[in-house]
Description:
Blueprint: E1 17-21, H1 32-40, E2 43-46, H2 52-55, E3 63-66, E4 69-70, E5 73-74, H3 78-90, E6 95-99, H4 109-118, E7 123-126, H5 131-138, E8 149-156, E9 174-180, H6 186-195, E10 203-208, E11 216-221, H7 225-231, E12 238-242, E13 252-253, H8 258-269
Helix pairs in contact: 3-4, 6-7
Amino acid sequence: MATMADQPSDPATPATVHLVGAGPGDPELLTIKAVRLIRDARLIVHDGLVSEEILALASPDAELISVAKQRSRHSMPQDAINALLVRSALAGESVVRLKGGDPFIFGRGGEELEACRAAGVPVEIVPGVSAAIGAAAQAQLPLTHRDASSAVSFVAGQCKGLSDQDWSGLAGKGRTLVIYMGVATAAQIADKLIADGVSPALPVAVLENGTRADMRTLRTLLADLGDMVKREAVVSPALIVVGEVARYALARDVLAGWAQRQEYGAETRS
């Protein structure tokens, strides 16, 4: 009779891939679990938007691999990132995949999760404060408000075929629209929303470098959005918030005659 010792050993169990949200930049917004995983990790695969202060929490012995993505230029294609995570985990190396904001909000976390599952690699998701939530809080801009908005939508401003997207109903009375990655297409976004029936006088806030020391909050009207982004030399990362709630932001108004245009907006909405 075969004994336990005679049985072939099981293959090595893959290590876990941790998809960790690093939040919008301020290291004090990290979860306790995220801090622990970062400090214990031996391999950290991180986005370009993860701040240096957060990366500094890693062990001196950890290997840090940047897979930064920029508009039309990626240091590592997504398929290669997926393969790196799977290969490392199958080799028995526990991996922290550190992503700006939250892994499941425009972070491609779902794609990486699928790749790991397909390879039999266990995955743990550690949520993070999303860029929208963090930046809005820093600007004291409530994304919902009983007097202004009872619904919030998140969209990506870099999507292909922007003019063909159906954004009807996402912005307007009682609604807030938060646009990620919309700096380069701000003028087209404004034109698209206005063409879909949104008032040109609807308030807009642009939140640049949210939660960081160099954060800027700028406020204007939808009709001026594209021009304002150019005038003020707004750079990524930045969020665009469209809706009445933008009036609450602690911001610098950058459109002459803001108060008068607000009155016009009220007339337009009535």
